[in-house]
Amino acid sequence: MGKLVMGYWDCPYCDTKGIRGDAAVCPGCGRPRGQVKFYMKGQAQNQERRADDVADIEYVDEEQAKYVNRNPDWYCSFCETLNSDNAQTCQSCGASRADSEANYFQMRAQLQAKEAARQQPAAQAPQKKSRLPLILIAAVLIIAGLFMFMNSETTSRDYQISGVSWQRAIQVEQNVEYHESGWAVPAGGSVTDQRQEIHHYDSVLDHYEDRQVQRSRRVIDHYETYYTYTDLGNGMFDQVAHERPVYTTEYYTETERQPVYKQVPRYQTKYYYDIWRWTPTRTATASGDDHSPYWPDPQLSQDEREGQRAAVYRVTITNTQKGESTRYRVSEADWNTLNAGDSIYFTVKRSGGEPCISDEKGNPLVQLTKD
Question: Could you tell me the pTM of the whole model?
Answer without folding.
Answer: 0.49
